[in-house]
């Protein structure tokens, strides 16, 4: 994990996750002010279900870099994707089992978090 080639990608991924987390918190706060506690909690949980697996993926995916470790790069990406999918499914199951969810803000925030990686490269400067 000391590979200097992974640094810029890892930093960019963490900045992306931080920006998305801030957006989730701000949207949840606005929903709390205008629509109430249950709606805000639903949005916050939906956002968290999207953000937490992304952080885990960023950690796993950017462990290796370079031509000598190309097989490890592919393996770390695949294991990161598998863990991300499993954690997402697990968090959805926990949310549906133990929380009272308002569906629209919950799924809207989850979808927003899933779409944000398409927009954040225009907001965050990628340093290489």
From TrEMBL:
Pfam family, one: ATP-synt_I
Membrane-related topology note: Multi-pass membrane protein
Localization (cell): Cell membrane
Membrane among keywords: yes
Principal cellular location given in the protein's record: membrane
Keywords: Cell membrane, Membrane, Transmembrane, Transmembrane helix
Entry superkingdom: Bacteria
Sequence intervals crossing the membrane: 12-35, 41-62
Name of this chain's protein: F0F1 ATP synthase subunit I
Biological source species: Colwellia asteriadis
């Amino acid at each position: 994990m000391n590979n200097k080639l992974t640094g810029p990608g890892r930093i960019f991924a963490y900045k992306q996750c931080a920006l998305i987390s801030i957006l989730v918190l701000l949207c949840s706060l606005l929903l709390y002010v205008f629509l109430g506690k249950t709606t805000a909690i639903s949005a916050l949980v939906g956002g968290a279900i999207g953000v937490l697996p992304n952080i885990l993926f960023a950690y796993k995916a950017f462990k290796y870099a370079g031509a000598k470790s190309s097989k490890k790069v592919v393996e770390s990406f695949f294991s990161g994707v598998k863990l991300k999918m499993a954690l997402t499914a697990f968090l959805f199951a926990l949310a549906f089992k133990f929380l009272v969810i308002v569906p629209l803000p919950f799924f809207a925030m989850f979808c927003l978090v899933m779409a944000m990686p398409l927009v954040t490269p225009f907001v965050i400067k990628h340093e290489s």
